[in-house]
Please model this.
Amino acid sequence: MDTATNTGDENLLVDGIELSNPKGLEVVYSSMREIDGNLIGAQTAFPPENAPELSADADGDEWLIEPGEKLNVLIAVEPTASVGTADAIQISYQTPDGDKYVATTTTSIVVPNNTSTTCDDLS
Model:
């Protein structure tokens, strides 16, 4: 899980959370919200059983980040090949003036499609 912090002095509107260069991997859920608790790591089902309560009011296609606010970037993926990968997560956002930007995280993703895949298969 990554975070997005608005370090500016204007609201930012996030209008997209996508994978960068996905191969055999599909996004099944994405959201941004403030979370108290730990969601970092891989889970075998969505939503994870041990996840903090996720309210539906933060679901949607757009999220507003106010100046100084920090939100968690949530993304659930499903492999569509023997091993699914993505180079990073991309977050599209815009300023109140309509200027558009894309932030790319440093988080790469590797998801085997079954438990018989070994670490040697991923290299």
Notes: The two ends are 23 Å apart (CA to CA). The CA atoms of residues 16 and 118 lie 33 Å apart. The beta strands are 2-5, 12-20, 25-33, 63-65, 70-79, 83-86, 88-94, 100-104, 109-112.
